[in-house]
Design a protein that fits this description.
Elements (H helix, E strand, L loop, with lengths): L2 H12 L5 E5 L2 E8 L4 E5 L10 H7 L4 E5 L17 H14 L5 E7 H12 L4 E9 L9 H4 L6 H8 L4 H7 L7 H8 L9 H8 L10 H10 L8 E6 L7 H10 L4 E5 L6 H4 L1 H14 L16
Parallel strand pairs: 3-4, 3-5, 5-6, 6-7, 7-8
Antiparallel strand pairs: 1-2, 2-4
């Protein structure tokens, strides 16, 4: 077997899913649609793609309908060079998928940028969402930005580092985890981002972090933040890798203050890609959450929060 065929076989083992595409004004929006039953909607961040959810999709597609999107510019979705890679457009794209697939009773599972995008869709369509599972993310304004990410926003240096040297997606394969990735998993994360052209969204997501009111996406994030109270009655599970240097435990605490009835799973030895470091702990906790929490259940008291 050649090295190329061996790599293809390894990828197929890690990501053995059928591709689906939604037409968005001529652009192909890729998503997975595995299993049947109550829908779980997986929304990734930057610089990952639906590959990040593969272990959870394999597990939960046994008894749920698992839908995992690739944002435009990411994964197997189209990567236009002149697209407006803004938070508002990513939210609208997700809304379109929800509406065209007529998804209801959705459990949102979101990470990183997927938190703002997924919660954006949920605040606009709260009647379609039943539960929320958030992992190392934010859906509110913050001026906290690690220097390693801020550096990627520097003119000239940012494009060279992110698009030319793959310094963002490549670095994430070891900086976002506490447990080393296998060569096959690392290759899977990097597979869609193999050229300057294909790394367009990796850079644009970094540039789209709205730190000041003058930023084009600041108003959108503000609207999402101000609409979060629409979701406080929804059961929520916060899964956090406590060694994340990007979405640090301070972000978890902000969610807990905004959603005082949320349950929290703190994983002390996991990093930003918490689903890579600790899937064996996340899966049973999510199953417990699904089994005991539905829209009819009363929320936990504050004293019960954080168990698990």
């Amino acid at each position: 077997m050649t090295a190329t065929s061996d790599a293809s076989a390894s990828f197929a083992t890690e990501y053995p899913f059928e591709s689906h595409f939604l037409n968005l004004d001529g652009l192909r929006y890729h998503y997975l649609d595995e299993g049947s039953g109550e829908p779980l909607l997986f929304v990734h961040g930057n610089p990952s793609w639906s590959f990040a959810w593969r272990n959870l999709v394999k597990e939960f597609s046994r008894d749920h309908r698992c839908i995992a999107v690739d944002h435009i510019g990411c994964g197997f979705s189209d990567k236009p060079q002149d697209y407006a890679y803004r938070l508002e457009n990513h939210v609208r794209n997700l809304e379109t998928l929800i509406e065209r697939l007529d998804l209801r009773n959705i459990t949102l599972v979101a990470h990183d940028w997927g938190g703002a995008i997924g919660m954006g869709a949920a605040t606009r369509h709260p009647d379609r969402f039943s539960r929320l599972v958030l992992m190392n993310t934010a859906a509110f304004r913050s001026k906290a930005i690690p220097w390693r990410i801020a550096a990627c926003r520097i003119p000239m240096f940012g494009p060279l580092a992110v698009r030319g040297l793959n310094g963002f997606a490549g670095a994430a394969t070891f900086m976002a985890v506490e447990k080393p990735m296998s060569p096959a998993v690392k290759a899977g994360y990097l597979k869609p981002y193999d050229s300057w052209k294909n790394r367009i969204a990796t850079l644009r997501f970094v540039e789209d972090i709205p730190l000041t009111p003058s930023h084009p996406s600041y108003a959108t994030l503000t609207q999402i933040e101000e609409a979060l109270p629409k979701l406080t009655s929804k059961p929520m599970l916060l899964v956090w890798g406590m060694k994340d240097w990007c979405f640090t435990p301070a972000f978890l605490e902000k969610f807990e203050r905004r959603f005082p009835h949320a349950e929290s799973l703190r994983i002390a030895d996991a990093g930003h890609y918490v689903f890579e470091d600790a899937p064996e702990r996340i899966v049973p906790r999510m199953r417990e959450f699904f089994a005991t929490k539905d829209v009819a259940d009363p929320p936990l008291s504050t004293g019960e929060r954080g168990r698990g």
